Amino acid sequence: MFNQELATKLSKEENLIFICPHFEGVDERVVDECDYVISIGDYILTGGELASQVITDSVVRLIDGVINKESLKDETFNNDLLEYPQYTLPRIYNNKAIPDVYFCGNHKVIEEYNIKQSLLITKENRPDLYKKHTLSKKEEKILEKCDENYINEAIRKSKKDH
Questions:
Q1: Cα–Cα distance between 107 and 149 in angstroms, integer?
Q2: Which residues are CB-neighbours of 88 under 8 A, at least 6 positions away?
């Protein structure tokens, strides 16, 4: 089954060749010569072309120089966690606001908030991943202290400082 771990492994390969079966598959004698037989999920497509594009896109972005390494650091599936929510302006869209914490100016508090959101979202949406994840001491502390009062205090301080 294709996953981020396999994408990372494939990104280190010098060359990749994909055989894209159409309808019934590939001659088993050819399959015997392959290093990998990869599935992207438990469903059926009419051909392997789309699956090979999915794998290619996932692998290529991990090759050094394609994407800034800093951008890859906090992505979904790193450390068995889903990524925290993303927001763009305007500040209010369809009567839903960007959380005030993102405007407090305290990068430490924002980072802690994002870590907590990542943990909570993973626990709710992908309990299988959350069970695989080992909480660090930092994450344990964040889950304990990064509550609504902590966030509101950071926001209050930022307003006072400005």
A1: 17
A2: none
Q: What is the pTM of this model?
A: 0.75
In tens, the pLDDT along 6-40 reads 999 999 999 999 999 887 889 999 999 999 999 99
Give the bridge partners for 22, in sequence order: 47
Q: Cα–Cα distance between 115 and 88 in angstroms, integer?
A: 19
Q: What is the rounded distance in angstroms from the CA atom of residue 24 to the CA atom of residue 99?
A: 50
Contact indicator for 110, 101 with CB cutoff of 8 Å: yes
Give the DSSP H/E element, type plus range, for residue 130. helix 127-132
Closest by Cα among 9, 11, 29 to 19: 29
